[in-house]
Recover the amino acids of this structure.
């Protein structure tokens, strides 16, 4: 509001030039008259009396084939932009799942097992792609990271909030079909059958299940789902520690910090003994990254110094399952201190 009590739109004066991006989302949903107004912003970097020459302008569009509200951008708009077509890979999805802990492990394992063939539909702008699901018809559910994320939320809810919670097939089928479509859901159902073979993740974390006495089934899908379930559980425990403000004090084996890191040690050790070093290494890398970005460096230092030598939860024990990430012991030492 200016001195005359009139509303004035001056975002660069309010927020400061060169400090923020201007993000124009779903640009090709705009009407032609709106796009015509934006063209001067894109070329002259000005709109009315406002100056955008030091502001990064980023626009995002979904192709019209994926959005019936969208249209092709007109050529004058296209010529004013650097145009980049983005796709995501299965590794992008899996890395996000491991870092966030928000994607159901059965879904992550499914995409790993199928090399991402069902991660999204094969839209016309992705010519030559290896996606196994055809471009959907009007009003037909289809797979994409957003719809798989929704399916994951439903699965967690139906499983009582736990990754290991069982979901009956009668409930699973309509939920998955209703979010990602029939083709992807039919293939996913085969992977979900492996969920009945994974152990109790909470019991592993608390040291109630020993991998030497209870080895995992010699099936990659079972081992991978177990690993993702362990990562999800550990990520949840780390977030809970952050929420509770757990201090990095390890002078008591009854303290919350000790129990958190001891549980992480047990979980990684379980994977190393019960599955494979590669599986354990993936989990260790993900959990360490989560601790580093959520808690203090003291947690990282204590994690790699060892927790309970009498129970094998030592530095050497943990480093053993992290060894695949380095060429030598010296490199490991430089990575973890």
């Amino acid at each position: 509001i200016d001195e005359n009590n009139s509303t004035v739109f001056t975002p660069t004066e309010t927020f400061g030039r060169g400090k923020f991006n201007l993000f124009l989302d779903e640009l090709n949903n705009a009407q032609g008259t709106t796009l015509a107004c934006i063209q001067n912003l894109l070329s002259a970097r000005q709109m009315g009396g406002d100056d955008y020459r030091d502001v990064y302008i980023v626009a995002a569009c979904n192709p019209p084939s994926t959005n019936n509200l969208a249209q092709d951008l007109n050529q004058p708009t296209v010529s004013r932009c650097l145009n980049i077509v983005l796709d995501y890979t299965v590794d992008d999805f899996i890395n996000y799942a491991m870092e966030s802990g928000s994607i159901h492990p059965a879904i992550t394992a499914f995409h790993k097992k199928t090399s991402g063939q069902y991660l999204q539909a094969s839209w016309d702008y992705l010519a030559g792609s290896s996606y196994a699901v055809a471009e959907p018809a009007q009003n037909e559910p289809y797979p994409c990271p957003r719809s798989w994320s929704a399916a994951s939320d439903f699965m967690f809810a139906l499983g009582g909030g736990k990754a290991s919670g069982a979901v009956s097939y009668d409930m699973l089928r309509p939920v998955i079909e209703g979010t990602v479509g029939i083709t992807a859901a039919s293939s996913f159902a085969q992977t979900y059958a492996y969920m009945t073979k994974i152990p109790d993740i909470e019991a592993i974390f608390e040291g109630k299940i020993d991998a030497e006495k209870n080895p995992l089934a010699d099936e990659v899908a079972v081992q991978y789902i177990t690993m993702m379930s362990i990562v999800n559980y550990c990520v949840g425990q780390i977030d809970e520690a952050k929420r509770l403000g757990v201090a990095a004090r390890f002078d008591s084996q009854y303290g919350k910090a000790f129990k958190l890191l001891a549980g992480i040690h047990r979980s990684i050790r379980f994977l190393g003994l019960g599955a494979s070093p590669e599986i354990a290494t993936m989990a260790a890398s993900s959990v360490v990254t989560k601790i580093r970005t959520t808690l203090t460096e003291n947690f990282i230092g204590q994690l790699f110094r060892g927790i309970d030598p009498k129970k094998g939860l030592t530095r050497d024990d943990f480093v053993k399952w992290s060894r695949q990430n380095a060429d030598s012991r010296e490199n490991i030492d430089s990575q973890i201190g």
Notes: The CA atoms of residues 117 and 132 lie 5 Å apart.
